[in-house]
Each structure stands twice: as C-alpha cells, then as structure tokens.
Write a structure and sequence with these properties.
It is a single chain. By secondary structure, the chain is mainly β. The chain folds into 2 domains: 121 residues, Immunoglobulin-like (Sandwich); 90 residues, Immunoglobulin-like, CATH 2.60.40. 12% of the residues lie in helices and 42% in strands. The longest helix is centred in the C-terminal third of the chain and has 30 residues. This is Junctional adhesion molecule 2b. It comes from Sander lucioperca. Keywords: Membrane, Transmembrane, Transmembrane helix.
Length: 258
C-alpha cells in the first residue's frame, strides 16, 4: 500500500510541476518463520526535504510506536535496525505478526506526509498438542477424544493413532475423525477399542509433533451395576404393564361397583 501525492499545475495539463513526498513498499506482505529476521521494506522520495522524519507504527487494538524520534521503542529496542526507511526485526515471534505502517514526513514538501503499509505474518511450526484421553470407559458408551495445538501458524491439522497405527475413518469403522478440530469420536465403544492413543499435529512450516500416548481401557459394567440396571428395567416394565392392564379394564368396564 502506498500514498503517492502529486501537485499538479492547472496551467500545464501535460504533467506534474513537482512531486511531493512519495512512500511505497516493494513487498507489502511478508511471511517469515518464527525466530528468523523479518525485513519490512519502505522506500521513499521527497521533493525538497533531504532529512525527512521516519516513523514506524504497528496497528493492533490501538496504534503503538515501533520507531520514533530516531529510536526503537518497547519490545523492539535492541532487536531491530533501520536502513533508510526499511525496518528489520530480529528473531520474530508470533506476537510480532500484524500490520505495520511506515510514515515519512517531509516538512519542506508541498504535501509533507506519505505512508505505506506492510503486513507481517510469522509462521510457527507445530507444538506438542494437548490430548484428552480418558483412562477407562464402559462398553457401549459414546466417546470423544480431543486434541489441540493452539500455537501453530497456519493452524494445525490432526491425526490420531492407536497402538502407533494411524486411524483412518471409513464407512465401516466405528469412529469418525475431524482432522481440523482434532476430534476422534466413537458412537459406541467395544472391548477391541482398548489401546494406546496419541494425536499428532502438523502444518506446512515444520515437523509434526505428537503428544505422549495414553492408555484407554474399555470395561464391562460391574455385576452389581448390571443387576441394578436390569432390576430397574424390570420394575419399569412391571409398572408399565400394570398401567396398561388398568386402562384396558377401564375401557371394557371390568371394574364395576356393586
């Protein structure tokens, strides 16, 4: 993005009489890996002023100074340099991502302010994801395992492994996998689903990273719980049967007062 302003002589339609300060960037979008240097290019030309004021600002929730009054400010002090109007930031992190504005003020020019915008995107390789795997679950239960890497840029995609074998969902598998959200979902687990589970996050920037495998055990309901469930089901069935009998008797008039 650039701001090029010219002063036109109304009596000379063939072209400009003189130029004001002109600011541009040869690379308005910059992508670099984390912990490398980011070069934010800014080129300018002035009409008369040989010593213009150069400032860099970063836009976020507000606007903060990066370079002001010939000095770097805040977190940029000691890890940035200027060559002309071009800004170089050393060892960038994700916090440095954002929109930067190069402003050149030439007080002797007809129009004395020009600016150019450069967008910096810091790419971050995968980090070890957080994995949620319960230690045990009952047979027949629904189950969803979760995996998340909140730090990688661009956002990571995910793959689940059971006993070091990648899980690929098909129409025949008892589970589904969401590679973007990192979810592994079972509608009804069985004993064969027991095993060691881990998740791997990956993106285009660096090598994949995996969490430590965690053991999932699928267990049968305890005998006393099974008896309790069966007893409750039988009791409910008995109540339902009695209700049906009462309704039938009332409809047929089998319950008459003497």
């Amino acid at each position: 993005m650039s701001n090029n302003i010219q002063l036109i002589d109304p009596l000379t339609p063939a072209g400009p009489l003189c130029l004001s300060v002109t600011v541009s960037s040869s690379k308005p979008k910059v992508e670099v890996h984390e912990h490398t240097d980011a070069v934010l290019a800014c080129e300018f030309r002035t009409e008369k002023d040989q010593n213009p004021r150069i400032e860099w600002k970063k836009k976020g929730k507000g606007v903060t100074f990066v370079y002001f009054n010939h000095k770097f400010t805040g977190s940029y002090a000691g890890r940035a340099k200027m060559e002309g109007a071009t800004l170089t930031i050393h060892s960038v992190t994700q916090k440095d991502s954002g929109e930067y504005r190069c402003e050149v003020t030439a007080g002797e020019d007809h129009v004395n302010l020009g600016e150019a915008t450069v967008t910096l995107n810091v790419l971050v390789p995968p980090h070890v994801p957080s994995c949620e795997v319960p230690s045990s679950v009952f047979v027949g239960s629904g189950l969803e395992l979760h995996c998340k890497d909140k730090l990688s840029v661009p956002p990571a995609t995910y793959r689940w492994y059971k006993d070091n074998k990648a899980l690929t969902a098909t129409a025949d598998t008892p589970y589904s996998v969401d590679p973007n959200k990192g979810a592994l979902k079972f509608t009804s687990v069985s004993k064969t689903d027991s095993g060691m589970y881990r998740c791997e996050s990956s993106n285009s920037v660096g090598a994949p990273k995996s969490c430590v495998a965690q053991k999932l055990k699928v267990i049968e309901y305890p005998l006393n719980m099974t008896i309790l469930i069966a007893g409750a089901a039988g009791f409910l069935s008995l109540i339902l049967f009695c209700c049906i009998c009462v309704c039938v008797c009332q409809r047929r008039g089998c319950c008459k007062s003497e």
